[in-house]
Amino acid sequence: MLPNGRYDETRGNRASTYQGRYEIRENHIDYRDDTGFTADGTFIDGVLHQAGMICIGRGSRRSSNLDKKVSHRAAAPYVIWCEAKK
Question: Is 48 exposed, middle or buried (CB count within 10 Å of its CB: 0-12, 13-18, 19+)?
Answer without folding.
Answer: buried
